[in-house]
Amino acid sequence: xxxxxxxxxxxxxxxxxxxxxxxxxxxxxxxxxxxxxxxxxxxxxxxxxxxxxxxxxxxxxxxxxxxxxxxxxxxxxxxxxxxxxxxxxxxxxxxxxxxxxxxxxxxxxxxxxxxxxxxxxxxxxxxxxxxxxxxxxxxxxxxxxxxxxxxxxxxxxxxxxxxxxxxxxxxxxxxxxxxxxxxxxxxxxxxxxxxxxxxxxxxxxxxxxxxxxxxx
Amino acid sequence: xxxxxxxxxxxxxxxxxxxxxxxxxxxxxxxxxxxxxxxxxxxxxxxxxxxxxxxxxxxxxxxxxxxxxxxxxxxxxxxxxxxxxxxxxxxxxxxxxxxxxxxxxxxxxxxxxxxxxxxxxxxxxxxxxxxxxxxxxxxxxxxxxxxxxxxxxxxxxxxxxxxxxxxxxxxxxxxxxxxxxxxxxxxx
Lengths: 216, 188
Fold this sequence. Notes:
- The complex is a heterodimer of chains A (216) and B (188).
- Chain A is an alpha+beta fold and 216 residues long.
- Helices cover 29% and strands 32% of the residues of chain A.
- In chain A, strands 1, 3, 5, 7, 9 and 10 form a 6-stranded mixed sheet that branches.
- In chain A, α1 runs parallel beside α3 and α2 packs across α3 (34-52).
- Chain A starts with a helix and ends with a strand.
- By secondary structure, chain B is mainly α.
- Chain B folds into 2 domains: 1-102, Rna Polymerase Sigma Factor, Chain: A; 103-188, Arc Repressor Mutant, subunit A (Orthogonal Bundle).
- Chain B contains 8 helices and no strands.
- Chain B has helices spanning 3-15, 19-41, 44-61, 71-93, 119-130, 134-145, 150-157, 161-183.
- Chain B is globular.
- Chain B starts with a helix and ends in a 5-residue tail after the last helix.
- The A-B interface holds A 7-8, 11-12, 15-17, 38, 41-43, 45-47, 49-59, 62-63, 65-67, 69-70, 73 and B 19, 23, 26-27, 30-35, 38, 44, 47-48, 51-52, 55-56, 59, 111-114, 116-117, 121-122, 125-126, 129, 140, 143-146, 149-150, 161, 165, 168-170, 172-173, 175-176, 179, 187-188.
């Protein structure tokens, strides 16, 4: 057998799976071939060293960060189950913010639940976001009846931006009776307290709302 | 209860939606998965990102595991696919760049592997390993670093044992050459 072929066999000589016949072939060859014998010794040393290379340890916060991602993913799944709203929320998420929609006359048609009443996946709600990190803004709308052709316009302040990079967004769609949720993915741009402003429009009705968010 | 049964119990509980048990499984596998990811991505941040993706996929799909094969092999198969999807997507976006993280200066030696004994030399092996083409590197990592068998690797990468063996062989040849290049030796 040629040295080239023997060298190829030598690369797997030290594996448990290599059968005895193949090993004998190599043993016989390396006895008389100095070049292959050297290759054999070097490969043995190399594999011994490679197998001693310790694996890398996962970072310390690996699990807590995984936990945070799982929450986000789960939220996304719940979110996508709401097709009536999903077209408005093409953005993903990390943190929840709550909007209070200020009530104007005619609350019997449309009103908004208190933030605490909506237990969305049970995650901690916070009202701040870090610079350059992303998070969710949640708008919770409770309607006393099914309503069609509702618009929600959002305007972002200087220190925040939608994850798409845009400064405003409009959602148009129908509200079902009960709770309806709108999620927006936003990114902190510069530190400070900022107001995200919005307006909900239904026929002649206009409900303005605002939420103070701190960017750290 | 032995370790194997413990793991089986954890898998069963995770399948029923118990996140705490799932976290225990993550704890068992996280270093191995991260280590493989790091070999593939060559970047710590990306390695963590892709490891997280693998575990999130496991959480979603763990219910599909039927205990007909080894959980480890099934999970490594899933991880392998996640990693390759990630790498493929990344390649489509841009060509990856390899950062030069350290400069090594070692004396040339009659046998380059005489020097490969200390921590720095281990780093050299890791560095040389990064130069081995991806498909071959993964098989070397699975066999030589993770201690998998030909059979297990064959199941993970869904290729015949002969392919595993030939990739391992070529991967080691290239690793040896690369190590020789790094160390400036002519004896390879």
